[in-house]
Amino acid sequence: MEWYAQSTLVHPLTTIRRERLLPAAGEVVARIGQDMQPAQVVARMPRQTDFHIIPVSDLLRIPPPELPELLLVNEGDSVERGTPLLKRKGLFSMKFVSPVDGVLHRVSNGRLVIQLTTGWLELRALMTARVANQIPGRGVILETHGALIQGVWGSGKENIGSLRLATPSPSMALDEYDIEDDERGQILAAGKLDRPEALQKAIASHISGLIVGSITADLMATAVSAPFPILITDGIGRQNMLAPIFELLKEMEGNETTLFANPNGTGERPEIIIPQPRIPKEDAPLPNRPLAEGQRVHITRGQHSGQMGTLSQLHSRPQSTDIGTRALGADVTLANGSLIFVPYVNLDVII
After folding, report:
1. Terminus of the chain with fewer CB atoms < 10 Å: N or C?
2. Contact assessment for residue 255 and residue 163, using Cβ atoms and an 8 Å cutoff
3. Residue 162 and residue 266 in one domain
């Protein structure tokens, strides 16, 4: 029988494909096969705000029921200042043009409701990549090669910057003195975040993003409102950053790094993407594979929470746990050589 557990991708070099999508229908400007730089726009859509109401029936003395028959545009159409909106032929022929830029939102009771356009919402590539495909009206699929690290929590923002390790080990908490007065363009990485002074200094220093192993619950609200993305690799509390993640970030220090700090509930894991010029010999294994002996695992709960180990034996029948209950699980060999039993639900496979 096959057994499964949560998995986390921590891979130094793999092929990465990611969608970049507008929140609503718009215009895709990037071409299939085009090489993109992070700041380049891949798609855009009108940014719409207030409404402009035109009482056409009152102005032109047209009975409201007749107005739809005279319209030259439909609800949902984009209009610019000067675009003809309606035309009536005959002895008293006339043409009426839009006084503003926007979208014809609704025709109601002899009135035209135009949602104003105040510029464009531009969706940028945010990483060095090639356009692998287009999604008409919504965006593109980008492809790149590089390091990929999945997190467990994100603050809901995204950005790009140069990676800098702010702490020398995965067990150290970020301190305000680890942050320079001006960190523009820098994405900082640290073992954990449990000091409000450090988070406030990061905000004041205009960093581009923050990667930490864990964050304490009292800082969550400030993290969500911070102007830059914050990505958590391990959990809420005071857990150390996993050694394999910290070592990979250390190896990639100084590289262009993208944070997609997708929030929980979106169906997408938060991700760290670090493009590389090399082409991988093979792609990262697919997630959600059946458990197998020899796999590297992270223990997420229980007495040995936070430790790494290797799967030694998978059990098909419930075994005794440390707290006296019985559960399905596996024997795990820890780094110090000791063998322990861990329920499957407490395992995270590091791929």
Report:
1. N
2. yes
3. yes
Query: Which alpha helices (DSSP H) does 45-191 contain, by range?
Result: 56-60, 67-70
d(CA 283, CA 143) in angstroms, rounded, equals 13
Q: What SS3 class is residue 178?
A: helix
Q: How far apart are CA 309 and CA 315, in angstroms?
A: 16
Q: Which amino acid is at 202?
A: A
Query: Which of 187, 197, 199, 299 is closest to 239 using CA atoms?
Result: 299
CATH classification at residue 223: 3.50.30.10
Query: Which pair of structure tokens corresponds to residue 88?
Result: 């009536």
Which tokens belong to 131?
């356009």
Indicate whether 194 and 162 sit together in one domain.
yes
The structure's pTM equals: 0.81
Contact 343, 321 (CB under 8 A): yes
Range of the domain at 312: 296-350
pLDDT means per 10 residues in the chain (351 residues)? 88 94 92 97 85 86 88 89 81 73 89 85 95 96 96 94 98 97 97 97 97 95 93 93 97 97 78 93 77 93 89 93 89 93 94 87
CATH assignment of the domain containing 112:
2.40.50
What pLDDT shows up at residue 58?
83
Instruction: Count other C-beta atoms under 10 Å from residue 207's C-beta.
Output: 27
Both tokens of residue 96?
């009426």
Q: Report the 10 Å Cβ neighbour count for 242.
A: 22
